[in-house]
Amino acid sequence: MIRARRTWATAVAVLAVAAGVVPAAHAAPQPPGPLSAPTAAETGTGTEELPPGWRITTADNGDSALEWRSPRPVPAGDARVEFHANGTLVGVPEPGQDGLTFRLPLDEAATTAPSDLADLRVVAAGQRLDAAGEREARDRRSAGPSAPALPARLPAGTVDPGRPGRYATTTGEYALAPLRLPGLAAPVEMRGVVVAPKGAPGRRPLALFLHGRHATCYVPGKGEEEVTIDWPCAKGAQPIPSHRGYLRDQKLLASQGYVTVSIAANGINSQDWAAEDGGAQARSSLVRSHLARWAAWAAAPATAPAAVRKGPRADLSKVLLVGHSRGGEGVNRAAMDTLYPPPKAEDGARGRARWTVRGTVLIGPTLFGQNPVPDVPSLTLLPGCDGDVADLQGQVYADGTRGVSGGKALHSAVHITGANHNFFNTEWTPGQAKAPAMDDFWHDPEQRDPVCSPGAPTRLTADQQHRAGATYIAAAARLFVAGDDRVRELVDGTGRRAPSADPARVLTHAVGGNRGAALLPDGRLNVTGARLCDAVSPGRGACLGGNTAGSSPHFASWRPEHEAGRRAVALSWSKPGAPARMTPGAPVSLRGARSLALRLFVPPNTTGTRFDVVLRDAAGKRADLGRIRVDGLPGSDRTASYWAQELRVPLAKAAKARLDLRRIASLELVPRSRSGKAWLMDAWAWSPGTPAVRPAPLTRVDLGRLTVKEGDSGVRTYRVPVRTTGKAAGTVRLYVVDPDTGRTKSRLVRVGPGTAGIDVSVRVRGNRRYGWDTTHDILVKAVRGTVVGADSGGVTAENDDPMPTVSIAPVAADVVEGKPLTWRVSLSEPADIEIPALAELVPVPEGRPELSTADVDKEWLLNFVDELPDPAVPLSRLDYRTLWTWVPAGERSADLTVPTVRDLLKEPAEYVRIQPVDEEGGPLGPPLEGTVRDAS
Fold first, then answer.
1. Residue 932 — very low, low, confident or very high, per pLDDT cuts 50/70/90?
2. Which of 161, 661, 672, 794 could disulfide-link 475, Cβ–Cβ 3.0 to 4.6 Å?
3. How is the chain split among helix, strand and coil, in percent rounded to 5?
4. Which of 161, 216, 176, 167 is nearest to 195 (CA)?
5. d(CA 745, CA 743)
């Protein structure tokens, strides 16, 4: 996160007080009223008004914050709620216990210009939560399709992993001493519910489940208003048993011979909002602490809890990790930490790993760091109606592994039409959960979503969804752990279904496995008849424009506003026959492959898009491989339905045409539809089979954060802490964030033995003037031969100077009407930031006549009211009545004015009284008066 910035934070504060809002205490937030900004003519800043729902509050310690209050409760979920402005991340706010209020301290706000204030947005996983975003969505929804069609039903596969096995099961629970984890104040519970097979011989594979971020406590018999995200739970409240929400999945696996355990993580959920990685490292430490206990119990069964002893001994050489939402990111990090140990200071699970992770299952997962583990097979469930992690950022668990390592691990993406986020967990499902629960895909009865509203033909029931999820978890276990290659066709884009998942419509694609790279847009590529586009970009180079209804999981944003080297090929045509040709920087080999596999998508709800697929070799020989057809997924403006399907064309015609498959020079897609759009993610040389996975010795990179005092003088140079471990060199992409603009610059950096590595130095200039903290951030992402743990870090220079004393004195406090009343705001010394000064209009005592709304400039008055009062009222009776100004950075004074107007009435002198106030709304010195005398 980028720390406080000058103009933006001050401008926000001034806008709030300009509206007459005396900052409220954070301990008791009140619903905000409409906030109006001063006009550009008045302030000279060009600022616009704060959007509805936004205001400035002040905490008990005097720290000001930007606050947004939601029009309806925002449940504790897995997507990270973020404040954005003008396409840039402003910061990650702290959620209030009321589920409505989100608060970002101004000294933790990213920079942007004052003119960006009108573009403030609240975003979670690419989905806008604020009122303006909802209005835009309703407008788009009214023009959307009425009844999108379901994807076609696929043929059944040769095996069905969703069928129960032959073993009866036994269930029990264990509770161990709580765990202390770095960065968390409260200890975390060590609790697990075990479901194991009865009578299964020998040691059995172990599947560990980790739930995601959800509310932690509830009061039995009470409603949603008594649901909190505290830890430990308050007196009278009980923990929400999220870890018991996968019992169906556990029983299916246990019947097939697996020992299973689902672990609790409420203690992390309550505390992870402040973690820079969203709690990924803490969850990894929790997972590996449980695995360490299981390894010890396998070695000495008599020491195990009763719930563990009731089942067979676990085989820790065959571990499957299953994570839901932030739990998905947690098990991904646990798989990484198992192979490539994390920094000891950040790790709460010490000791050598005595287990082997054979694969991961990631259910609607987050991936804030976009740092998947390339050499551990994965299967990611993408719910088509996810209302929490709505951008389906878990797609990056597949896409983000391309070209990073040897590519032998299969990474499958499984799209389930009509599934939401919560219903994979019964404890998050209404009618099944002990605590209050809800459908995360919010439903507006007046604006039904054609795909995801309850009752839509494309929407699954809770039981249908859970059955489909259990089936594909079992598929991953059977493929990754048991090594049954017959299951692969259900998850790798071959186009087969598991009947146990019916009636769910499930589509899949994959990278890795028995694929060789044929065309990757991220590398050197020449494109004609189409364009290379950027997955994440604020400009015209973006693959999907900002006005697109809906989004693409492939283009889920990370932290930078623009990502270099993350691309696709965008096709657009108005008549058939014009080819799009992609030519890699060097010829590629398809030798030995059976088919060419393309991952390609078209706009949602479109049908019948067709292409001819053509290859040319280095000698210029041409072969038309055949025609493909692709239909769009059912989608709406609220879904991430721009999702690639895997389309395969056999290479037999290329061999028949005698193409040199060792040197393929270009790929052409020739549209045969009248017009349309499509996006090609990549193309692969595909062969059947699941190769053995041997993790490569990748170099691991973790960024750290250094906090220093700015000092009183001189310039000090600091280096961003970077930890690099590993025996082989690799490449990462480094992003350096400008502390003043928030924009990034990137470059490729070689890391590991024999390289200079990441070396970013920061110059901190000391002074004796008050200012904001300044944070210099860097970000890093794996490119080749690397993995990334902590993806963000930097140097924060803390302000160590006191705020100047503010005083207000009259300059022109006795004037004739038509002249401005003026008071001078003075500072005891200049500051490096603008310093606001506030004064509240208060009643004039002793019954003396008070200046009214008819006596002041109308444009000035409209800064305080939406409509001019009729009849006029005294200024002290306005709903919003705080005067403001600011002293510019580097200066010592500014004037506070009340512009009066001359009228034709003969009247006695009128008075106005102002009370200077501090940031908490408390009085600052005695009140001041102004007198306005008749000019006639």
1. very high
2. 161
3. 20, 35, 50
4. 167
5. 7
